[in-house]
Write a structure and sequence with these properties.
Radius of gyration: 20 Å
Strand order of the largest sheet: 7-6-5-10-8-11-9
Oligomer: single chain
Helix content: 25-40%
Number of strands: 11
Largest sheet: 7 strands, parallel
Order of helices and strands: HHEHEHEHEHEHEHEHEEEHEH
Strand content: 15-25%
Structural class: alpha/beta
Length: about 260
């Protein structure tokens, strides 16, 4: 059992918890909590760490899962945890790897393109909701929030393991590739000509979702085939990015649902 915070593995865990550079160099991320660890694809799990008290309570479940965890004292586990009330288990997991071709090969793709989205909670919520709405893939500009940020990982509630995604070095070139595959691209925009529910999303569809405060960059919005708006009442000027994405995604889901 590791009982010192000066232990080298503890120092490495702390680096992976706090620094995206360390995660990317190692090609891993951390998932914390029972659900997140137990749902992780087993072939991607590099190492599992548990607190001493967690081990005493869950040794049988860990054995059944095939995990041979490294045990940390409760104090050390609290030290490396990213949560205020640690559950006592975290895993080092190999980062996901998808290609644009994989995302586009689905019949009538349903895609989100996130432009400069910055909030970890928003990104995680979008991933979780996208899985529920039947999205086939999420594309992100390189300046979007780090999807492997621990807060984002928690917010996905496991969708990170199942929702294909890809960072684009050139988001506008990526949008053009999407269009070349017969996917119609819509910008969620306050100046949209039609309301979002006036369009037909039965065929390949992609939505462009912009930054929380500034919306879509002009040059990205201009890549769209059409701009759509979400009609709003009252004095509200705009919706939270994750909420707007949810409205659009579930409209696609509604139109494609088979009774």
């Amino acid at each position: 059992m590791i009982t010192s915070t000066s232990n080298q593995r503890v120092k490495e865990l702390l680096q992976l918890q706090k620094k995206s550079k360390a995660r990317n160099q190692a090609g891993v991320f951390l998932a914390e909590g029972t659900r997140m660890v137990m749902e992780a694809p087993q072939k991607r799990v590099r190492k599992v760490y548990v607190s001493e008290s967690y081990m005493k309570k869950h040794e049988k479940e860990l054995e059944e899962k095939g995990f041979v965890p490294e045990i940390l004292s409760d104090t050390v586990f609290d030290y490396v945890s990213d949560t205020k009330t640690p559950q006592g288990i975290l895993a080092v997991i190999r980062q996901m790897d998808y290609t644009l071709e994989e995302i586009l090969k689905q019949k009538s793709p349903h895609i989100l393109v996130l432009d400069n989205l910055q909030d970890p909670g928003n990104a995680g919520t979008i991933f979780r909701t996208a899985e529920a709405a039947g999205v086939t893939g999420i594309l992100m500009s390189r300046d979007c929030v780090d999807i492997y940020n621990p807060k984002t990982i928690r917010s996905t509630m496991g969708a990170i393991y199942r929702m294909p995604f890809l960072y684009l070095d050139d988001v506008m070139a990526g949008i053009e590739t999407v269009k070349e595959h017969g996917v119609r691209v819509y910008a969620a925009h306050l100046d949209g000509k039609n309301a979002y529910d006036q369009e037909d999303y039965q065929k390949g569809t992609a939505f462009l979702i912009g930054n929380e405060g500034n919306g879509l960059r002009k040059e990205v919005a201009e890549c769209a085939d059409a701009w759509v708006c979400i009609p709003m009442s009252g004095q509200v000027e705009s919706l939270n990015a994750a909420v707007a994405a949810t409205v659009l995604m579930f409209e696609v889901s509604r139109q494609r649902r088979v009774d």
